[in-house]
Amino acid sequence: MPIKDSLSKLEQAVVISEALPYIQRYHGKTIVVKYGGAAMKSGTLCRQVMGDIVLLSLVGIRVVVVHGGGPEINEMLVKIGKKPKFVKGLRYTDTETMDVVQMVLAGRVGKQMAQLLGELGGRAISLSGMDGRLLVAKKHEGDDDLGLVGDITYVNPEPITLALNGGYTPVISSIACGEEPGEMFNINADSAAAQIAAQIGAEKLILLTDVRGLLRDPSYEKSLISTLTLHEIPPLVKEGVISGGMTPKVECCVEAVRRGVPRAHILDGRIPHSLLVELLSDQGIGTMILN
User: Fold this and answer.
1) 70-118 pLDDT, tens per residue?
2) I need a surface site. Which of 81, 113, 134, 227 has the fewest CB within 10 A?
């Protein structure tokens, strides 16, 4: 046998053996993975991520998937002749847009992800935050009116627990019931994932995004900050290291960790198998936030 082939097999064996203690550590534990936005654009990459989730499930790690779908929502709005509206980078959701959000997230994206998980050998069920009043919210209060955008006030863990105990991976759309009859709200998927992770006692919250993690210098990928504790975050905000689109992601991680989730991670979902590298290897990638 050629030496090259032998080394390749040896390297594969090392990777598998390295994963064993991590599989043992997380067996029976629950992790929450937020997947959405730009990280979902590549069909090949999406299939890899779903395959990784199936693998984790098969080795006894319970996975909850929370997804967004901003690009898909924009695409559908354009198809019906409606221009997407944003206020300081945040989606404004009027009644017509809310109908599209519900149709795209709960009616298409979530179903497609659950179908793909099934095709790859997993067992998955698509849920929205409206099923079983899984997510309840009130209208977002802030300096700017965002329409039917909500802030979560309650998470009902029962539908999630029932799915997990039945051997299914719940795939949850970030839509919520209102506190009043007939109300419905669009929810930020990062925030939904953080709230769910805290409520169900998850071992980890993982945000799959389209950046390497938190960079001290955004133009230099080698400036990645690999580990952060809560007390290190306020100075980075003052310095402007945490700013723009990274601010809400870090805030969601902080919220989850403060409420008892041991570790929260911001990973680049564009890197093949980034989920497995973070969970099942010594290497780890992205930024980890812990208390």
Assistant:
1) 889 999 999 999 999 988 778 899 999 999 999 999 999 999 999 999 9
2) 81
Give CA–CA dist 97/35, Å, rounded.
21
DSSP lists the bridge partners of residue 31 as: 63, 204
* Cα dihedral 59, 253, 38, 98 sign: positive
Q: What does the block give as tokens for 28?
A: 């029976």
Q: pLDDT per residue over 176-227, tens digit each?
A: 999 999 999 999 999 999 999 999 999 999 999 888 889 888 878 788 899 9
